[in-house]
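Backbone-to-sequence.
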């Protein structure tokens, strides 16, 4: 790759990262292309060279995020899945975009919230590895995905988006908050898995 192509790709990445920050700060509707160009230190014409407008900018950012999310699903070991460290690090790294996803998803006229894509990708990943799964331990029914979304995905996203503000508001240090969240997560989502596994065991015995 020559220097000119490398520079073009570098500028495009800079535009995407800057747009992500401004979307998180002001919301998608409040963001302006002029401001994105000014903060990125590029001409507005360069943004339109790469993207048709804000909609395409956001879609490109989402595509990158979910591509990385898919790679994360396929790279996690059992130990990493148990501790959630790699998962939470990924969410924390993408906290600006997660704020945008949440804001856009909460709009009343949003028919297909992009955050649901995370559940859909979990479903797809499970289909890929279904031959290695015990169907009694991983039943693919609607209640299972409701639990994954409302007791795991959504609380985890909320945590990385609100943790700094929580510490500032309540005067709590980050270590204490992370410990309390981890314990609360195990008492909710972890307890769901325990109860589900117990129920499956009882069904197998009867």
């Amino acid at each position: 790759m020559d220097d000119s192509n490398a520079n073009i790709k570098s500028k495009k990445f800079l535009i995407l990262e800057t747009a992500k920050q401004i979307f998180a700060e002001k919301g998608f509707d409040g963001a302006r292309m002029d401001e994105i160009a000014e903060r990125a230190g590029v001409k507005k014409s360069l943004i339109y060279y790469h993207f048709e407008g804000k909609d395409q900018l956001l879609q490109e950012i989402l595509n990158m995020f979910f591509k990385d999310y898919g790679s994360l699903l396929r790279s996690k070991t059992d130990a990493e899945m148990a501790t959630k460290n790699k998962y939470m690090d990924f969410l924390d790294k993408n906290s600006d975009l997660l704020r945008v996803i949440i804001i856009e998803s909460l709009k009343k006229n949003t028919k297909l919230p992009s955050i649901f894509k995370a559940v859909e990708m979990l479903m797809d990943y499970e289909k890929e590895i279904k031959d290695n799964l015990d169907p009694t331990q991983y039943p693919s029914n609607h209640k299972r995905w409701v639990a994954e979304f409302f007791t795991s995905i959504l609380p985890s996203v909320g945590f990385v988006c609100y943790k700094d503000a929580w510490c500032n508001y309540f005067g709590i240090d980050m270590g204490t908050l992370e410990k309390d969240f981890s314990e609360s997560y195990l008492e909710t989502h972890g307890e769901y898995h325990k109860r589900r596994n117990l129920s499956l065991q009882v069904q197998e015995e009867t």
